[in-house]
Write a structure and sequence with these properties.
about 180 residues, alpha+beta, Alpha-Beta Plaits, 2 domains, 9-stranded mixed β-sheet, two-stranded antiparallel sheet, 3 helices
Amino acid sequence: MSRLILLNKPYGVLSQFSGGSGGQADTLAHLIDIPAVYPAGRLDKDSEGLLLLTDDGALQSRIAEPRYKMPKTYLAQVEGDAGEDAIDRLAAGVDLKDGRTRPARAKRIEPPPLWPRDPPVRYRKSVPDSWIALEITEGRNRQVRRMTAAVGLPTLRLVRWRIGPWGVDGLKPGEWREIDV
């Protein structure tokens, strides 16, 4: 039977088991001690949230490969006021240097009840921020950050909340659970 692990990857941790500048402290190795599981996709060091790990190559491919169009939902705190125009542009697809993104589901949301981030997002009294939920079916490098920047809303905090049917709800940063597939 295939193993599937849902991990709430903390901010500052690489989506790999070795090669970090801080030894194992900034890699998955200090969070998960299960042999022969590998990330199905990646999250940048400065992004948080759901990372799936598996020992099944076919499942890893189905989750990570863009051709399967597995939806991924992100919660993004952005600098500026996420107005209707910006949301509509994100939903329609955005022109990036590597081509136009697929249409996405985008909506403005109230600040979600998330865990505190360490270090915290810098607060600026003179610059508003807002939250959006964005569901994409691609996985380009830093795609959500580049999409929000393209519509004038730089990302301050990025949390992957769901991948397909799996979510991070109920897991604190660094916690994981194994589920049956």
